[in-house]
Amino acid sequence: MIRYFVHRGGRTDLVDHLDPSWLSSASARAASTSAPALAGGSAGKPETVVVWADVTEPTEADAAVLRDRFGLHELAVEAAVQRETNPKVESYGAYLYVALHGINFHAEEHKFDTAETDFFLAPNFLVTVHDGQRRSIAHVSELCGRTGHILAEGSVALFHRIVDTMVDHYRPEVDEVEERLDVIEDRVIEDPAASTVGDILAVKRDITTLRRILVPQRDAVGRLARREFDIINQEMAYRFRDVYDQFARMADDGLMFHDRVTGILDAHLASVSNRLADVSKVLAVIATLFGPMTVITGLFGMNVPLPTMFGSPEFQFWEIIGMMVVTSAGLFLWFRKSGWW
Predict the structure, then answer these.
(1) Which of 99, 215, 309, 324 is the most buried (most CB within 10 A)?
(2) Residues 53 and 4: beta-carbon distance below 8 Å
(3) What whole-number distance in Å separates Cα of residue 248 and Cα of residue 242?
(4) Which residues pair with 128 in a beta bridge?
(5) Is the model's pTM score more than 0.90?
(6) Whether pLDDT at 314 is above 80
(7) Which residues face 113 on adjacent strands?
């Protein structure tokens, strides 16, 4: 489904069809020279029109509109429809193809969901292709329906507004990861249960996903901030530089989280290993304490003549028991004095 927001004559309208004249080369030149103030064409000049085509759950018919009406390259349209592209920026001469990823955190499932949003940016139009669940586009489209100045600033400013809103949605998700790390870290210190390993690996997987999206996205926005493309003027480059800084900080946070979760995993494994060593030490001490008893009972249990103990025969059993207790107690005191117990 495609919905069109059109700014012309100083007002923004939501229309259900596309007039080919809005995408004419004359309109594109007018938009590139008159942005950000688009109040309409002056006498003798073509009317300035800015179009935002928002495509949700694109079909083959929608793809045909993008190819035939907007003149977009078929490979770029195919990539946008399939939505399996890593974050990137590509120039197709008259327009840019930008692929970025939004993010959602499902608290009940404790996992991230990243979804691609594709942009086709020209001086007089912006095309967005997504799954219909993008919060940033829903927010900006709501603003366009209420006020006309959003599209009046031009297609590049509209694109920046969407990307900036997308970045704003990243920060709560990154903070959620940090909170999960704090909780897991406390569990590792206080009660290192075996099930904690699964939670550590799950958050490590989320951090890896976050870094895999943030780093190329940072680089893509960095190209816009450096004015590698003529469509981005100096003023918009300043705005994209701010977005780049936010992506760079979050990418650094992702690297820090990765190192931190690795340290938490190492600490958990060390804690489990220490507990296993403590159990093994207890078992070893117990086996050692019973060693003299085993030797004495085996010695006096041999079917050969043995020397008798002191006193009458009826007291020899208790004398042997006392010998075993004394030797084991002596070993125990030696272990305590040596610090092994």
Answers:
(1) 99
(2) yes
(3) 10
(4) 54, 119
(5) no
(6) no
(7) 104
